[in-house]
């Protein structure tokens, strides 16, 4: 692990390979009912700031994501084959996929460090998801336009003394059954910041905010009780809360509590948590403060391809956190229960929308096994 976030400098080979500059036809017909093609209209830049931020990020477009989208478009032009995506939107298909797979695997193998590999992996995942979701998914609810649920999701202001950091795995970005996005929808980007794992710009923004907030105002929601995590009651009636005597008078930048939610499947979450731990040690010389919940599992679990941590989806975990915080006397008057309920209501709306979609498409509404794949 690099000792500073600045050390995450990308330096992969950007030269389009001559081997792929062949003219050919591809069979890009849709393989299933979810398949669709990207538009081949020339775009400049490859992704605009407006489009990028429309998906829920408040950052500039990450440099490496822009570079990979540009590379994919160069490859598309060189082989005269249109990119097509299928499945959940971020998976390349057909002949283009075959060529692109070889190319990106060669790039990946040539990278020197695990840090560079992670950054390339994350940026490529995100680039594919962005391209596969253009003109297909609603930017707010991440569902196909015909299933957009936005009109049924109610906005609710989060208590100004708390902020969520949605630390999301790239494979969960723009996923229809992702529940972390509900925090962006319900509380807005003013109270929830999307931080994509392995995207250096995002992680830098998050850690800069944590550095200025101070370690006592940062905690990660950890799935299981262990030696380093505390229960909510224990954490907020002890040292973490010593400067929060009057929560209603808190203003921006003044003792705001930063809650990190790890938004990934079980297997991905372990690596994400380790990265947080390593960064906390490099910044503070100590482990990241953790809290764990006393409650919860969620109906959403049934629709997840893999169980999330503690069999609890991200939105349900955030709602449970708000309910448990409500029980801490000093937080009892800031409306956390209502805010947790708003999140649960949105979860219900998402579950209904996903169920209706699956029934309409003739699919099972229970979990289905997916094949693990390193790349989209
Ligand atoms: Zn929508």
Automatic annotation (TrEMBL):
Organism field: Citrullus colocynthis (colocynth)
Name listed for the protein in its UniProt record: tRNA-uridine aminocarboxypropyltransferase
Catalytic reaction annotation: a uridine in tRNA + S-adenosyl-L-methionine = a 3-[(3S)-3-amino-3-carboxypropyl]uridine in tRNA + S-methyl-5'-thioadenosine + H(+)
Keyword Ion transport: no
Ranges of residues in domain DTW: 134-363
Signal peptide location: none
PANTHER family from the UniProt entry: TRNA-URIDINE AMINOCARBOXYPROPYLTRANSFERASE (PTHR21392:SF4), TRNA-URIDINE AMINOCARBOXYPROPYLTRANSFERASE 2 (PTHR21392)
Pfam family, one: DTW
Enzyme class: transferase
SMART domains: DTW
InterPro entries: DTW, DTWD2/TAPT
């Amino acid at each position: 692990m690099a000792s500073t976030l600045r050390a995450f400098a990308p330096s992969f080979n950007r030269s389009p390979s001559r081997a792929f500059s062949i003219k050919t036809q591809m069979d890009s017909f849709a393989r299933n009912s979810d398949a669709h093609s990207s538009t081949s209209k020339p775009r400049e830049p490859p992704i605009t700031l407006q489009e990028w931020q429309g998906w829920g990020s408040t950052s500039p477009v990450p440099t490496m994501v822009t570079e990979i989208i540009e590379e994919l478009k160069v490859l598309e032009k060189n082989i005269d084959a249109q990119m097509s995506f299928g499945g959940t939107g971020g998976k390349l298909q057909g002949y283009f996929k075959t060529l692109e797979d070889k190319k990106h695997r060669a790039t990946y193998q040539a990278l020197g460090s695990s840090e560079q590999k992670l950054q390339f992996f994350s940026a490529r995942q995100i680039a594919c998801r962005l391209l596969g979701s253009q003109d297909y998914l609603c930017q707010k609810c991440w569902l196909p336009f015909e299933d957009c649920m936005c009109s049924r999701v109610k906005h609710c202001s989060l208590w100004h003394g708390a902020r969520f950091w949605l630390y999301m795995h790239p494979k969960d970005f723009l996923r229809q059954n992702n529940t972390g996005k509900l925090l962006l929808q319900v509380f807005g980007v003013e109270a929830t910041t999307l931080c994509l794992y392995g995207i250096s710009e995002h992680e830098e923004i998050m850690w800069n905010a944590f550095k200025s907030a101070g370690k006592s105002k940062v905690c990660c929601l950890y799935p299981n009780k262990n030696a380093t995590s505390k229960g909510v009651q224990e954490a907020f009636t002890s040292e973490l809360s010593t400067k929060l005597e009057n929560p209603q008078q808190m203003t921006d930048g003044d003792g705001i509590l930063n809650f990190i939610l790890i938004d990934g499947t079980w297997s991905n979450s372990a690596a994400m948590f380790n990265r947080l731990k390593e960064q906390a040690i490099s910044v503070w010389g100590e482990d990241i403060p953790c809290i764990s919940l006393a409650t919860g599992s969620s109906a959403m679990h049934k629709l997840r391809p893999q169980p999330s941590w503690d069999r609890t989806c991200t939105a349900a975990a955030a709602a449970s956190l708000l309910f448990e915080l409500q029980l801490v006397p000093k937080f009892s008057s800031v409306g956390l229960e209502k805010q947790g309920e708003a999140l649960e209501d949105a979860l219900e709306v998402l579950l209904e929308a996903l169920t209706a979609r699956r029934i309409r498409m003739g699919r099972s509404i229970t979990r289905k096994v997916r094949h693990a794949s390193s790349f989209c």
